[in-house]
Amino acid sequence: METIRKAVLPVAGWGTRFLPATKAMPKEMFPIIDKPVIQFIVEELLEAGIENVIFVTGRHKRPIEHHFDINTDLERHLEEAGKEEILKNIREISHMANPIYVRQKEQLGLGHAVLTAEPVVGYEPFLVSLGDIILENGSGALKDMIDIYNRFGKSVIALFEVAPEEVSKYGIAKVKEIEDGVYIIEDLVEKPLPEEAPSNLAIVGRYIFTPKIFDKLKETKPGKGGEIQLTDAMRLLLEEEAIYAYKFSGKVYDTGNPLDYLKTVFEFALKREDIAEELTQFIQEALSKRTQSIDIP
Ligand code: G1P
Q1: For a substitution probing ligand 1, which of 161, 170, 260 has the most ligand atoms within 8 Å of its CB?
Q2: How close is the Cα of 47 to the center of ligand 1, in Å?
Q3: Which end of the chain is more exposed for a tag (fewer CB within 10 A), N or C?
Q4: What ligand 1 atom has the least distance to the C-alpha of 229?
Q5: Nearest-5° angle of CA 71, CA 39, CA 47?
Q6: pLDDT in 10s for each residue of the chain, 297 residues
Q7: Going by CA atoms, what residue is nearest to atom 8 of ligand 1?
Q8: Separation between Cα atoms, residue 13 and residue 224, nearest integer Å
Q9: 250 CB-near residues (< 8 Å, 6+ apart)
């Protein structure tokens, strides 16, 4: 069986939920304190042993390429300033992974983005990681998914439990448990209404696909929102091949909308020794001021 060597990262989306901030700045470059979201995703892949990272990017996303490139001027400046530690960190990022960039010329949907990577992926199994979700111990989750792929030789997706009112934000799966923690997908639906959802198990943005998904993506008609949906192509794939699922039970950090992004930044800040104490004090003071102002009739 072929091993998983490549990952596709679709990063060409408009980031409309964050406009106007995303007019000139990719949402994937938004910082979680001082590290861009996309770097978390790439580090997760590297820790899971995947070095070939194919970014499906667009003309408005150049900062992502710059981030993983060498910046000689900055390196020289840091060297002259004697900032050894940050210099080491900056150099590591430049040599992180083997980045490959493919342009998605029109944003026709997530499924279309994945299909754009076909000439680079070739006819082999591959991973897809979405750029707006950070998983707690994400590399562990990827390794578990790769193990399931190695056992069954078929596509594997990661699912997580969401509240019933959240189902319309995600692709939702109907599953059957075949052994402890391993499921087989029976059906999928992209962003259903709560009353139409077959379960509360949502696709969490990590997928392993057999190359047959490309054939199915070519047949997929525009679906939800008029876009070529990856979930719809997976439904077509189900007619021919089994798709397995892995239930992710760790913490999911969504960064894809302003409120969840802020929550993520806050949670990460509370884990940082240099920030946590002062931030907590600041929040407590801000909250007490808010309560006082609410009390005033
Ligand atoms: C995409 C997928 C959806 C999945 C979600 C995970 O939606 O289409 O199936 O559950 O990512 O974040 P998006 O968030 O890009 O609208």
Answers
A1: 170
A2: 23
A3: C
A4: 8
A5: 115
A6: 788 999 999 999 999 999 999 999 999 999 999 999 999 999 999 999 999 999 999 999 999 999 999 999 999 999 999 999 999 999 999 999 899 999 999 989 999 999 999 999 999 999 999 999 999 999 999 999 999 999 999 999 999 999 999 999 999 999 999 998 899 999 999 999 999 999 999 999 999 999 999 999 999 999 999 999 999 999 999 999 999 999 999 999 999 999 999 999 999 999 999 999 999 999 999 888 877 766 655
A7: 171
A8: 15
A9: 135, 136, 137, 140, 141
Residue type, 14: W
Domain 6-256, architecture per CATH = Alpha-Beta Complex (3.90)
For residue 253, the CA-to-ligand 1 centroid distance in Å is 13
Q: How far is the CA of 131 from the centre of ligand 1 (A)?
A: 10
Note whether 73 and 66 are within 8 A (CB). Answer: no
Residue type, 186: E
CA of 79 to the centre of ligand 1 (A): 42
Residue owning the nearest CA to atom 10 of ligand 1:
170
First to last CA, the chain: 70
Question: What residue's CA is closest to ligand 1, atom 15?
Answer: 110
Q: Which residue, chain included where needed, has tokens 């448990």?
A: 177
So where are the chain's domains?
6-256, 259-297
Cα→Cα distances 42→7, 86, 97, 192, 194, Å:
9, 19, 7, 30, 33
Measured in Å, residue 277 CA sits from the centre of ligand 1 at: 35
